[in-house]
Write a structure and sequence with these properties.
alpha+beta, 9 strands, DNA polymerase, domain 1
C-alpha cells in the first residue's frame, strides 16, 4: 500500500473501481504510517460510492473518538440504516458531498449550518416530521461530540436551540376495512403456490397482532407459544414484547408451517425462523425472509384487490379496531406504545365517522 503524506490526500484517493470484488461492510484494522510517524492503528472502511461497483475509502484513527460512530452505536440496527441515509444527505446538503459521513467534521457545525439545512429541506418540500429527523440526527451527533470534549456546552446548547420546520401533514397510510382483510385472505387462498399460504400467515400476524414488519421478520419458532397463542418479539428500543394473536391467525400460521415441513428433504430439521424466502419456481429456501419482502408482499397482494397497501397499514388497522371495540388504553398496551398520544395518532375512526356523516346528506 502506498504511503500518503497526509490523511486528507488519502481520503481524496477515494473513488476506486473494484471490479467484481465485493468489499466487506465492516472495518478492517491495520497498521499504517502517516506523515512519516510511527505506524498507527487505523481502520480501513469501504462504503458504496455512486454505483454498486465503486466505493469510497475512509480512515478513522479511533472509533471511540468519532462522534458519529458513537451516535450510530447507540441506535438499534433498524434505525442505523435510516439515520445513516439522513446524515449522508445532510452532509451532501452542507457541502460535504465528496465525504463519507464518518469523515465529516460534525463538531465544527454551528447553528447557521443547521438553520440553512432546515430551510433547504422546507424549500424542497420535506414534511415537518422529516425535518425533525434531520435535526434530531445532528443533535445526536453533537451530543456525542460534547461528551468527547470536541465542543463546549455553550455550542451544544446553541445547536439544540435550532428548531425543525413547524406544521403538520395528514397521517400516512390507510385504515384497512375488515372486508378488505377477507379479500386479501381470499386472494392468498386462490394462489396455488407456496407463496399463497405463506403470505396469508404473514398478513394474519401483521393484522392480528399489530406487530411491525421488522418484528415479524425476526421472530424465531422458539418464540411462538401455540397453546397461549402468543409470540415473543424484540420491539423498538430493544424491548422484549409479548404479542397475542386470534385463533384464525394461528390457523394460518400453522398451515404455513405444515406446508414448509412437508417440503423439507427427508431427515432435514425444521428452520428456526417463521417465514422463508421463496424463489421463482416455488422453491422454499432455507433463508429467512427480509423486511423488503414484507413490503413487496403487502404491495403485491394489495394490488390484487385494487388497493395500495403498506405493511404498517395492518398495524394502523389493528390499533383502530382495538380502540373501536375496547378503548384507547387497551390499544396502547397491545401496541406497546410508551406514550398514549402515539396510540391516538393511529386512530382512524374519525375518517369513518366523517364519511358516514357526509353519506347521510341528500338532496
Amino acid at each position: 500500500m502506498k504511503h500518503h503524506t497526509s490523511r486528507q490526500s488519502f481520503f481524496h484517493s477515494a473513488a476506486v473501481n473494484w471490479g467484481k470484488i465485493t468489499p466487506p461492510t465492516f472495518a478492517h484494522l491495520l497498521e499504517y504510517q502517516v506523515d512519516g510517524h510511527a505506524p498507527t492503528r487505523l481502520a480501513l472502511c469501504l462504503s458504496p460510492y455512486r454505483s454498486k461497483r465503486r466505493y469510497r475509502i475512509h480512515v478513522v484513527t479511533d472509533f471511540s473518538k468519532n462522534p458519529l460512530l458513537q451516535y450510530m452505536a447507540r441506535l438499534a440496527p433498524s434505525s442505523q440504516q435510516t439515520m445513516r441515509y439522513i446524515l449522508q444527505d445532510a452532509a451532501d446538503r452542507l457541502g460535504f458531498a465528496d465525504f463519507n459521513i464518518v469523515d465529516v467534521p460534525w463538531h465544527r457545525l454551528d447553528p447557521g449550518h443547521v438553520i440553512a439545512l432546515v430551510a433547504a429541506l422546507r424549500e424542497d418540500g420535506y414534511a415537518p416530521n422529516s425535518s425533525s429527523l434531520y435535526v434530531n440526527a445532528i443533535r445526536g451527533v453533537m451530543n456525542e461530540a460534547w461528551r468527547q470534549g470536541l465542543i463546549d456546552h455553550e455550542q451544544l446548547l446553541r445547536i439544540r436551540e435550532v428548531k425543525p420546520a413547524t406544521g403538520s401533514r395528514l397521517p400516512p397510510g390507510r385504515n384497512l376495512r375488515r372486508s378488505l382483510i377477507r379479500e386479501l385472505m381470499e386472494v392468498c387462498a386462490a394462489d396455488p403456490r407456496p407463496q399463497g399460504v405463506r403470505d396469508a400467515a404473514i398478513i394474519a400476524l401483521l393484522y392480528g397482532t399489530g406487530m411491525r414488519k421488522s418484528e415479524s421478520v425476526d421472530i424465531d419458532l422458539s418464540q411462538v407459544d401455540f397453546e397461549a397463542r402468543s409470540l415473543q418479539v424484540l420491539g423498538k428500543g430493544n424491548r422484549q414484547l409479548i404479542k397475542y394473536a386470534p385463533p384464525w391467525a394461528f390457523e394460518k400460521l400453522q398451515a404455513w408451517l405444515d406446508l414448509r415441513r412437508d417440503d423439507l428433504p427427508e431427515g432435514a430439521s425444521d428452520d428456526p425462523f417463521l417465514f422463508n424466502r421463496i424463489r421463482r419456481g416455488n422453491h422454499i429456501t432455507r433463508a429467512r425472509i427480509t423486511k423488503h419482502a414484507i413490503y413487496y408482499i403487502a404491495r403485491q397482494r394489495g394490488a390484487q384487490v385494487g388497493v395500495k397497501i403498506m405493511p404498517h397499514d395492518f398495524r394502523r388497522a389493528f390499533i383502530t379496531r382495538v380502540i373501536e371495540e375496547h378503548d384507547l388504553s387497551i390499544a396502547q398496551k397491545l401496541a406497546h406504545h410508551a406514550n398514549i398520544q402515539t396510540t391516538a395518532s393511529y386512530d382512524r375512526r374519525d375518517d369513518n365517522e366523517r364519511r358516514r356523516a357526509v353519506d347521510r346528506f341528500d338532496y
